[in-house]
Amino acid sequence: MIEVKNLVKKYGNHLAVDHLNFKIESGRIYGFLGPNGAGKSTTMNIMTGYLGATEGEVFINGHNILKEPEEAKKHIGYLPEQPPLYMDMTVREYLEFAAELKGIKKAKREDEITEVEKLVKIKDVEHRLIKNLSKGYRQRVGFAQAVLGFPEIIILDEPSVGLDPKQIIEIRELIRKLAKKHTVILSSHILAEVREVCDHILIISKGKLVASDTPENLERLLGEHNVVEIEAEASPSDIRLVLKNVPGIEKIDIKENGEETSTTFIHEKKGEDVRLSVFRAFASAGIPLLTLKASGTTLEDVFMELTQSDTVPEALAKKGGWVEVQTADSKSNSQEQGEEVQENAGDL
């Protein structure tokens, strides 16, 4: 679908993108993460043909975005962080203009615009000037032009920035709906949003790819262990007796609540998930469980560790995650995760 090979972008002496390599497969929602200045927007602008690269290549469905821009761009819809809107146009006029630029046939143009307006819920403001719309509606208009023509790949740079909570939820629902028929690449600083909607995450730091995996795998691999928290109507001694024969437990910490209940923190051994066994053990003992929830390393923890240290990516790779390690004298490492092996996109 998309292949980025040895991508480099320099602004004078500043290296914004540093020999970046990765692949985007069809049918997934990808989260593209990194701190400010990491090179996210620069990479996305190169992928969509808005910027040229200093070195390297980007292929969109086999078409080189630099050498075959028209053919490559037919497969991409792009919403930049600042939507490219013409404020003195009405919504309908702007979408008609965008449809013409995208080469949508005149016979299909009206129907496609109407369909997109309904999809992003801007049909009721189609005759209003864009400059008179709220921030949320302007963002929706930008979203509409990205979706117009229904390209296979939708690239969204901070699509929910500046929106209220209700609008953010609606944008998330729209992204999930699009993902049924399109590949979506989402850049966002709202990590909870990425955790909720994305199937796969790419994290870049200082222009380099430092991790590529599912959110769940990254959270599990970066944590020393996961913790399962339970609250039960039982004394500490009874809880220890129930958990005595449950496999996969490294240690337990119990706090008596003083109301005939106890809260227990169960530390799992690496790679174990004891929740089902714990539930069954308490059910067999006839002891009610009031709470059973997993807690541990979050995506926020993963993001902070991977983007604030030069050594954490290498340490994570040793734990078994698929992680790109980029240094001046090293090449990327690819590790097997569970039963699935994800192919390394190339040396970095």
TrEMBL record:
Gene3D superfamilies: P-loop containing nucleotide triphosphate hydrolases. One of its GO terms (molecular function) is ATP hydrolysis activity. CDD domains: ABC_DR_subfamily_A. Residues 327-336 have a biased composition (Polar residues). It comes from the Bacteria. PANTHER family: ABC TRANSPORTER, ATP-BINDING PROTEIN. Residues 326-348 are annotated as: Disordered. Residues 2-231 form the ABC transporter domain. InterPro entries: AAA+_ATPase, ABC_transporter-like_ATP-bd, P-loop_NTPase. Keywords: ATP-binding, Nucleotide-binding, Transport. Belongs to the ABC transporter superfamily. The lineage of its organism: Bacteria, Bacillati, Bacillota, Clostridia, Lachnospirales. This is ABC transporter ATP-binding protein.
